[in-house]
Design a protein that fits this description.
The protein is α+β, with helices and mostly antiparallel strands and 191 residues long. It is 44% helix and 20% strand. The protein is built from eight helices and five strands; from the N terminus they run H-E-E-H-H-H-E-E-E-H-H-H-H.
């Protein structure tokens, strides 16, 4: 014997992830206990509400609603996974990692989406010292590469870079060009 809707709902309330069903009219037709807890609302204050207007920050609503409309019209495909921000009753923003499927009726028409989400807000805040060091090194490398673009080519590989830069600008002021920079540019491989 198959479980009835009430039994299925009780089972879904045991899931530790957020489960939300949004219909083609952008209204919440189902949300589990974990979703209610995360958003800070009773289920009755969520069901039937426009998901985008009520539970997403205003700055992203228009864009997300436009994407959802295209999805409902079959113009685009739903991403199986994406991160998105939700807005809680207290005004706090939480980052949710969503796994999604499109719901279709018997005729094959798209009627909504079912999404299973996990609150990943703290992951973004808890960066390991190793990851932090890697990011610092990448930032430093990027900064060095940017500065290198402002250093004459003839000075890049010199041990005494200050002297090489002074020699470069002396040649520019006396001869009008730097013969070493011109030589390097002429022998550089063509892209």
């Amino acid at each position: 014997m198959a479980p009835n809707i009430s039994e299925v709902s009780q089972i879904l309330d045991l899931v530790e992830g957020i489960i939300v069903v949004v219909d083609a009219d952008q209204r919440v037709s189902y949300i589990n206990r974990k979703g209610c807890e995360l958003l800070g609302y009773e289920k009755g204050n969520i069901l039937g509400k426009n998901w985008f207007d009520n539970f997403l920050p205003e700055r992203i609503r228009k864009d997300i609603k436009a994407v959802y409309s295209k999805l409902m019209d079959g113009e685009i495909e739903l991403a199986e996974y994406f991160d998105n921000v939700v807005l809680t009753k207290s005004g706090q923003e939480r980052i949710i990692g969503w796994h999604n499927i499109v719901l279709k009726n018997v005729a094959g028409s798209i009627v909504g989406t079912l999404s299973l989400g996990e609150d990943i807000t703290e992951r973004g805040r808890l960066v390991s010292p190793h990851e932090q060091r890697i990011q610092e090194l990448e930032d430093r490398l990027s900064e060095l590469m940017s500065k290198k673009m402002h250093i004459p080519i003839c000075s890049w590989d010199k041990k005494d870079m200050k002297k090489a830069i002074n020699d470069h600008y002396r040649l520019i002021s006396t001869a009008g060009n730097c013969s070493e920079c011109l030589r390097i540019l002429r022998t550089a491989p063509k892209i």
